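Throughout our pipeline, every protein is held as a single compact record rather than as scattered files. The record that follows is passed on verbatim for readers who wish to inspect the format.
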Amino acid sequence: MDVTITSPATQGWELLARLAQVGQRAEVSDPATLSDQLAQLLQQFLPSGMLVLLGEQRVVAQAAWGLDEVVQSELVELTRADLVVPDNLMVFRFAAGAERTAALLLNVPTNNGHHLLDTAFYSALIAQIGLLYHAEQRLSADRRADSLHDLIDSRLQQVGLLDTKTILQEILLQAADMLGCESGAVYRYDVGEHHLVVQAQTARPTGIAEQLGLGNKHLLVQAAIAGETRIGVVERKLDRRRSAEATVVAVPLQSQEALGGVLAFVVAQGHSVSATEQKLVEGFAAQLSLLIRNADVFSQQQQRARELFVLYENSQEINRAAQLEVMLDRAAENIALALQADFCLVQLSENDGTTLHLAASYNESSRAGADELPSTLEVADAGALMARLPRNEPLWVSDLTSDENALYSALRAVHCRSALLVALQGKDEGIGLLTLGYRQRNIRLSQAERNLAQVLASQVATAVINRQMSMAQQLRAGELEQLQSISYALNADLSLDEVLDSIRSGLRSLLAFDAGRIYLYDGQTQCLRLAAHEGFARPALEADERLSGLVARQQRPLRIDDLRDATAAAQVQAGYLDLQAGGTARSYIAVPLRVGDELTGTLELAAARARAFNAETERLLTIVAGQSAQAITNARRFEQADGNLRARVEQLRALQRVSSQLAITADQGEILEFVLEQAIRATSASRGLIALRSVVDVNGEIEVPSDSVLRNYFSPGADDLISLVQRQQRAAIYQQVLVGDEVASDICLIVEASGYTEEERAQLMSRPLADAARTAQRALEQRLPILSEELDHDELRVTMSDEGSSALAAPIFYEAGVVGVVMLFAPKAHSFDHDAVEFLRALTHQAAVGIGNAQRYSQLKQLSSTLQRRAVILNDVLEIGQALRADRSLENVLEQVGYSVMESANFRVVLFFLTESGAPGSLRAVAGAGIPLSELDRIGQRPLPETLALRFLDTRLRIGRSYFVPAEELNTLEAGFDGAVWRYNASDAPGAAGEWQEDDRIFVPLYSTEGQLLGLMAVGDPIDRQRPTRRTVDPLEIFADQARSRLKTT
């Protein structure tokens, strides 16, 4: 154990030496740690005491030894105020650094009331301890300054990797913590607008306004204007409703004596800023200014690099892109990225600079599905908008609501708040507009950025002009090639339709239009005729009183840029320019088609939009019109020559076909039908008819008295027997002509018609050729072909022809006589020419040959039939004569007569009624042929009253020695009798008008030599379904005589 006893003075100097050693180590930078170390050292030399460090009237650190807690609390209060100190305590107050004080309280032992240590020792002790606190404070400040410096150094490496705002936010957050501040912010100085704007701030906002004008008296503005630190109390907003005052340190950020902004820190509540802290903040601000300057310089370098890259990229795209739209799209994207714009639009001028159309656009946020600009943005008031741009300077629009136009409205629709407008300037005039749109608030573009925009706009304008010039050259080359192609196509085509199709297809490939018409001039009618059209709603309008007629009369091009103009609208009639796609055309252009001074037609085009045609369109259309007019003229000449040749060839072929037909058939109906078809086919006729002279039966085949009621039953509604002659004995019409006799009648019957409807043909056939058919009548009278260019109303009516028809009629000669006429009708005037007349003349000669062949064939056929019938009748008569001599029964003989009638006279039913000696006044059916026995028995059960039989033998119904009772008269004659009892029909098929009807009957009376009625032979149901004539009843009378001979012997 060390029991060395030292004097108090020696211990005091040892204590001072130990304190000096603590100061030399300079290891402690914390006041609390230093106070603890000092207390431990003092405890070794002094029995008890307390060391208190005060700053801003608050205890910064304290340390005690040899005292309980209660005493420590009381002693702390002694250090804060000038209180009475107890006798056993010594209190020493001294400076402990900047704006800090310290108090040392010692309970020093005494020796008989005297302190063991003298006053010099205590003065040295206090000085030494104060020196240690000063060193600690200085060391702490240096370390904080170093930390702030390291913080700036570490962030300098991130410049270029992170944006400046992010770097500043991180620095402010850590610096505020190091400086013991609540929050901080960096305000940048906007030279153009002369105000301070927040660039970055801590996560906890300062509550100070984000924008401060230099005219404001705010603390930050004062610091910026004065260029020195300002510390003061400012009003700040805690939230929307609350605000409070806070102490703020504002330090200007200066670089090379230029104001760059202001650094502001909000001091913690109840804390005052010391000089040391002020120096720390000012030192931090100086370093922060350097960082911001470096960031600005790096940003400018990046901006320059981007500018160079954009210029390079645009130049590459200009040289690489084949299409103007692709190049502009890429350039718009590069410009937007270089100037950090949300939208970039490139609009080009149209219609002499009065309209801007969207050529390219870029939207930064289009990938995120944000609002996009319309793909077809058109600015109609482009002239007024372009006039607002300063000459050779961009126009900055800070508020897009300041004016109303299509461009501003479109930008506002996609939430843009401001825009930069740069004119795309050509050599002498503007060619378009470059627009950059921004969505952020309060965005400002530097002069360098505006200059870049101007340079990029000039680059784009130059590229557009070069590309337009290149496209114009290519267009000229393409137009020349297309014109050559059109010329080749027009010269290659020979038909008019092919030429017109080539004109339309060539125009489609050369020009842009929505509808077109081609009118051709008709020299005969001296009017324009529509030849081709497409795209118009009403293509078949007459052109003479319309725009095409005006072009034809003036023979010069006509171009109307906007048909809604009052002057132009007055020239257009309603519906003339209605488009098939809907609406009415807005633009119109027409050129005459001329070959030399001769007008060929007009060519007109129309478009739905206004000003679709220009002088270039007119030039090209005039060139095409000249080529087209020559091609149309050549095609017309070729078609005329080709048409004449084809017509002659077709006429020769028609004559050859008719000649071949004459060798194939001898049927007159087929020959005449074929002749008429070939006549219509080989000419321009649409319909025609053939009329032949009629001859009343010269052989006595029809011998019906003029007062006979039978005239009413051969052809219903006829006043004569012409139709009957035509239907039954057509060949007999020419009999006298062929044998050289004079024709007995001048009536011409229409025997063939073609080109008519079924109803019209039915009305014409078998009717006399009316006298009103003057063309045909003149041909018959003059015995020459007659051509009529216009038909009067009566001739049109009787021939059932259309209005405006022309007619050609030629007589048919045979054996130096006129036997008929061929008449053709065409729907238009001047349809027949000399070739058609000669062709029809030749055709009538062949028709006459066919008629003669048919007549001779008919005569031979009729003669053969007559001889065959006579042979059959003679054979039947011989057989009946043999039966009479064989003494056969009456019924058997009558039945054989009936079957002979069926076989020779072609009737299906024969019935014999005989008088009964035991029943006077009646006749009974005793025999028949073609009737079942059951039916014969039924009929035989009821006698036929003689009174009714005599009614059947009415002289009005007589044909030769027979009586024909038509069904129409039968009901009248059988009035009062049940005639159905004595009727039987083998066939129940109804007959047509003028044919044999179901209830028609033929009765042949059987008289004795004394004239007494012996019976009746009733005949019905002919096989040919024709009503009887004088020729058909002759065989009946022969067989009736045979039956009467048998009755005489009974």
